[in-house]
């Protein structure tokens, strides 16, 4: 939470310091405020509510599977078993 690193073909290795903790405090405050807004008004649904989180997770599984099959995936996606195991074998 105090630094970053990257390695790119163009720039090689690079690193630096960054206080992610300070940003995390602001992010957590925003999520907390969003929760209070939702409690006050049912139409202001929290951005991390379960149906949204499940849809985003399904999207990630679709991206993983698309990388395995090298083909587009229709969403919502019904993933086969052991996508992560298949990715480990290939990568």
SSE diagram, text form:
Layout: E1 3-8, E2 12-17, H1 20-40, H2 50-69, H3 83-90
Antiparallel strand pairs: 1-2
Q: What gross morphology would you assign?
A: flat
- Report the helical percentage: 40-55%
The number of E-state strands comes to 2
Largest sheet: 2 strands, antiparallel
Task: Give a structural overview.
This protein has 91 residues and is of the alpha+beta class. The chain has 2 domains: 43 residues; 43 residues, no CATH class. It contains 3 helices and 2 strands; from the N terminus they run ββααα. Strands 1-2 form a two-stranded antiparallel sheet. A hairpin with a 3-residue loop joins β1 and β2. α2 runs parallel beside α3. The longest helix is centred in the N-terminal third of the chain and has 21 residues. The radius of gyration is 19 Å and the shape is flat.
Structure in a nutshell:
The chain folds into two domains: 43 residues; 43 residues, no CATH class. It is 54% helix and 13% strand. It contains three helices and two strands.
Q: Main traits of this protein?
A:
3 helices, 54% helix, 91 residues, flat, two-stranded antiparallel ribbon, 2 domains, alpha+beta
């Amino acid at each position: 939470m105090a630094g970053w690193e990257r390695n790119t073909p163009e720039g090689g290795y690079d690193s630096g310091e960054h206080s992610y903790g300070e940003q995390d405090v602001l992010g957590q405050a925003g999520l907390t405020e969003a929760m209070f807004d939702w409690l006050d008004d049912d139409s202001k649904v929290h951005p991390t509510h379960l149906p949204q989180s499940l849809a985003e997770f399904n999207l990630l599984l679709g991206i993983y599977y698309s990388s395995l099959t090298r083909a587009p995936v229709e969403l919502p996606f019904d993933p086969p078993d052991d996508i992560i195991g298949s990715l480990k074998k290939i990568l």
